[in-house]
Design brief:
The protein is an alpha+beta fold. The chain is built from six helices and four strands.
Length: about 110
């Protein structure tokens, strides 16, 4: 673990893995996180529990990341921060569908298993 200006303690990979395994599909060793994944998490009502566990690891001055309303963009910010802190590969692709742009995030499945 490297020192972080956001997290006071390391967030276990298993916490992120448990959250993503409930809502994401796996393809080519990557979790695929889309807006549909966010809607699944919202429907299953698991975002609040995940954020409550994660918020304990944030410095008080950085808790605004987890205390604001968790829309798709804000949830992805938290997930990207956790991935960066744990050295988990994450990349995104932008696609154009039905007159709008959508972001698809690919999170390394193998790195979360170790």
């Amino acid at each position: 673990m490297r020192t972080s200006q956001i997290f006071k303690t390391n967030i276990p990979k298993s916490l992120l893995n448990g959250f993503l395994s409930q809502i994401c599909s796996v393809k080519d060793n990557y979790y695929i996180f889309t807006y549909i994944s966010y809607k699944k998490a919202k429907f299953k009502n698991i975002i609040t529990g995940f954020i409550d566990k994660v918020s304990e690891c944030y410095y008080n001055s950085k808790k605004f990341y987890v205390e604001r309303e968790m829309n798709y963009k804000n949830l992805m910010t938290v997930i990207r921060q956790i991935c960066k802190n744990n050295s988990i590969d994450i990349h995104s692709e932008t696609s154009y569908e039905s007159s709008s742009y959508t972001m698809t995030y690919f999170i390394d499945y193998i790195a979360l298993q170790t």
